[in-house]
Fold:
Amino acid sequence: MRHNVTVDVPYSKALPYTLFSKGSQIELPRVDKTKEFVHFKYGGGTVFALFYTFTTVGRKRVRRAYVATGWSGEKDGEPSSLPGVDEPLYILFKARGREVDRLKRVLYVLVDEQGDEHKAFKLPLLFWHRLCALIRQSQAARSDVRILWEHFAKKKLLRLTKKERIARRAK
Structure:
């Protein structure tokens, strides 16, 4: 079972990195008492994206992005840790350079065009593995992302009970 993950985004500029996270949050973000971090809590089993910008000694900025979920056990391999996250993570995808921009664009297509931020991040890990493979191959065109989305969204609809399907049709 995957556990909830809390991401601590720096609120002040005291740390040598900035962090932006996107995913299906299970509660509203909150600022801690010292006003150093904003805490984002993501549900167990959901996927989230972390975008880092690190400042190096020469004031050069290095960008990294990760698609991750909570680590559930040895079947996920070795647990990973990232700055701002205390829980162990299972990292599905690591991006650097141009891949960071591709990941942002794909998330835009999934979240903003579908109209629901939570749906995409609750899809199974297989969807995310395939999506990240598209990004890695530089073939994550808008149409490819939509086809993959529709394939997995239909599978999820087939697993709904009869009552749930009737309720969806009534909307």
Remarks:
- The chain has a mean pLDDT of 85.
